Amino acid sequence: MSFPIARPRRLRRTERLRAMVRETRLAPEQLVYPLFVAPGAGRRSEIASLPGCFHLSVDQVAREAEEIERLGIGGVILFGLPSAKDPLGSEGYADDGVVQQAVRAIRAACRDLLVITDVCLCEYTSHGHCGVVEGGEVKNDPTLELLARMAVSHAKAGAHVVAPSDMMDGRVGAIRRALDQSGFADIAILSYAAKYASAFYGPFREAADSAPQFGDRRGYQMDPANVREALKEVRLDVEEGADVVMVKPALPYLDVIRAVRERFDLPVAAYNVSGEYAMVKAAAARGWVDEERLTKEILTSIRRAGADVILTYHAKDFARWTR
């Protein structure tokens, strides 16, 4: 059909019409909100590079989680700031670590909120890398045992899902075996399957105090130029037992999200990362953009690309805007 019979504008005339034929829908229950857990009590300090996000002590995390659940957001993912760091990141897999305490507190306070835990050593190691360092090099295989211990400790605390973000080869399989052998066969693994060595992580590294003390992470995180490699990484994680696979970051890698969605049948997650969030907040603070419209457009684009789940610092704002 051609003009004048074909008039696509007919279905754009009113909001009711647009809503009725809308192809991509996004709801708060599809979002996961990141939380940063810090030592101490009564702590709620705003993170300078992530306006509206806070370092929270365990008691404050529980209160925050109650609000998040009331807003209808699907879940939270927890990152920990330990009271002390060492070369092996031992507080990351300690039974009384801040994340383990936070998991227990949230499970006690919230009935339905999904609790996901980040499984990585970078926040807990004195050198800031995601694995065991020997001779100035991040070693893959010795790291796997520690990641597995961390995942099991999170499961014991009550986590519903563990999310390895380290990008060590074989870590999904190591974690799956450890969980199963420890009686946690029902705990799901959300794998950071295609995690790129991105410049968009800057604010997060301040928030989590996780910047590497030497070198960088390009030796284990992915080259931003590669997409076929991402599909290989995802395939390996699926074969090792991942239940959900994630692409990180989201906006610069919408093509990767789409490629993963088309190739694999598992649920696909995407992380709308700290740098993406901070740019929106900075521009909105200067009056350069309409924050609500821009945020909704960004999250819809990630969903449209194929993400079933979106991890985003915008989750609370989005939930309030759409109530």
List keywords for this structure.
323 residues; alpha/beta; TIM Barrel; eight-stranded parallel beta barrel; globular; two-stranded antiparallel sheet; single chain
What can you see in these coordinates?
The protein has 323 residues and is α/β, with parallel strands linked by helices. The chain has eleven helices and twelve strands. The protein has an eight-stranded parallel beta barrel with strand order 1-4-5-8-9-10-11-12, surrounded by eight helices. The protein is globular, with a radius of gyration of 20 Å. The chain starts with 14 loop residues before the first helix and ends with a helix.
Order of helices and strands: HEEEHEHEEEHEHEHHEHEHHEH
CATH topology: TIM Barrel
pLDDT average, as an integer? 95
The backbone outline, from C-alpha atoms, is globular
Structural domain tally: 1
Report how far apart the termini are.
39 Å
List the strand order in the largest sheet: 1-4-5-8-9-10-11-12
Structural class: alpha/beta
| Major beta sheet summary | 8 strands, parallel, barrel
Low-confidence stretches: none
Write the layout of secondary structure elements.
Elements lengths: L14 H6 L10 E7 L6 E4 L2 E7 L1 H13 L4 E6 L17 H12 L4 E6 L12 E3 L2 E3 L1 H17 L3 E4 L6 H11 L6 E8 L6 H7 L19 H13 L3 E5 L5 H10 L4 E5 L1 H12 L5 H15 L3 E4 L2 H7 L2
Parallel strand pairs: 1-3, 1-4, 1-12, 4-5, 5-8, 8-9, 9-10, 10-11, 11-12
Antiparallel strand pairs: 2-3, 6-7
Helix pairs in contact: 2-3, 3-4, 4-5
